[in-house]
Amino acid sequence: MPSQPSKELETFENPEPGRDYAIRIRVPEFTCLCPKTGQPDFATLHIEYVPDRLCVELKSLKLYVWSFRDEGAFHEAVTNRILDDLVRAVQPRFMRLRAEFNVRGGIYTTVVAEHRKEGWQAPEVVTLP
Fold first, then answer.
1. Exposure on the CB side of residue 16, measured as CA atoms within 13 A
2. Spatial separation of the C-alpha atoms in residues 25 and 125, rounded to whole Å
3. In what helix (H) or strand (E) does residue 64 lie, and over which residues does it extend?
4. Is the pTM of this model over 0.90?
5. Active site residues
């Protein structure tokens, strides 16, 4: 039986919970519908996060993203909703979602939303010679 869209995000244990490291995920095929016209909106989602105890399982993320295909949503609302759902599922130390929407009416839209766990400090950037 083929896969079906799903709002359920599965997780797995972070294999290195004692270390801050970044996970970067690019989802180039996000689609939803314009709530005004019903026309499809296309976007590339860029997810960056520093996991705490859990990581998101990628197949479940794919099915989750697919679940928006027939839903009407403003860019700002859907970006924040996706971030909220991901944060609720994996409870990361830090997460950023950048949604780059394709041109519509001659206008490109990029929405960036972030979450930072209370008390978490980003590691200092190391510059090598």
1. 6
2. 21
3. helix 58-66
4. yes
5. 34, 41
